[in-house]
From TrEMBL:
<dbReference type="InterPro" id="IPR052026">
    <property type="entry name" value="ExeA_AAA_ATPase_DNA-bind"/>
</dbReference>
<dbReference type="InterPro" id="IPR008868">
    <property type="entry name" value="TniB"/>
</dbReference>
<dbReference type="Pfam" id="PF05621">
    <property type="entry name" value="TniB"/>
</dbReference>
<protein>
    <submittedName>
        <fullName>TniB transposition protein</fullName>
    </submittedName>
</protein>
<dbReference type="InterPro" id="IPR027417">
    <property type="entry name" value="P-loop_NTPase"/>
</dbReference>
Amino acid sequence: MKSTPLSHLLPATRSQAQLDDDARIQCLLRDRWIDYPRATQALEQLERLFVTPRRERMPCLLLHGDSNIGKTQITAKFRRRHPDVFDERRGMEMRPIISMQMPPTPDQHRFYSSLLFELGAPHNAAAGLAVLERLARNLLRRMAPNMLIVDEVHHLLAGTYREQRASLNLLKFLANDLRATMVLVGTRDAVIALQTDSQMVSRFTPFEVPRWRESEGFRRLLAAFERILPLRRPSDLAQREIAQYVLAASGGLTGEVSRILNAAAEAGIRSGDECIKLEHLEHVAPTHIQ
Ligand SMILES: Nc1ncnc2c1ncn2[C@@H]1O[C@H](COP(=O)(O)OP(=O)(O)OP(=O)(O)O)[C@@H](O)[C@H]1O
Ligand SMILES: [Mg+2]
């Protein structure tokens, strides 16, 4: 193979860029993490909460933003920083962070079932709510996590008014009972759901991950993508025309930016161009703007 300098890529991506086309297209499907300022701020905020000494009424966070903006990726990144450890002395696994999803309908029984599943606790699915609740609380007390993350909190709004109240009370009860910090994650609907309860509002600091706008930050994000896409020639994604196109086609959603760039990178590999051109973007993500 003709050797190219590949200086537009991160060192770790350079070896990938030497692989054959199919292998490189496979590489595009891998999970990857790109730092950007708002995510770094969110991670710092999570870290501050994580190290807050235990006390009554722990401060809590409501991480919100549109679907596909990257909220779950942020919490996943944070979890990787604080992995589970086996405590030899106690002979049990310590879980600094417990993370779960709100069930698609606000059903307390399902909530505790999911939580117990997450805690690795076998339980009788037919058990009553009070039993599951007690089991979950006892386990949480023993495991003493520093943080409980509940994702997809906007599902709470899917229920009737009564169910919403009950689910909110459940979250409030857990937040009070745990003596750990709680992080709720969801779309704008999660914010609306919490706003109906003044105690929750005072307890949970909102933190928004907004959509991208035309900015130096967005161009830096594109430049960061360019360094990890296994293409053999530079694309200069941060240039004005390309940045504007990707912004319009993605609606400013990180997930869409990632998907569009993957598809365009695949087109760049298959066509032999070995870089992303505007025509690839127009092909994989047509927009109606001129
Ligand atoms: N920091 C990042 N680096 C690289 N890709 C990212 C990053 N954040 C998000 N993405 C991309 O965006 C996609 C959507 O992210 P994520 O699942 O975190 O969104 P979300 O905000 O949780 O959406 P939803 O509200 O629908 O659950 C990811 O699958 C990934 O492709
Ligand atoms: Mg998510």
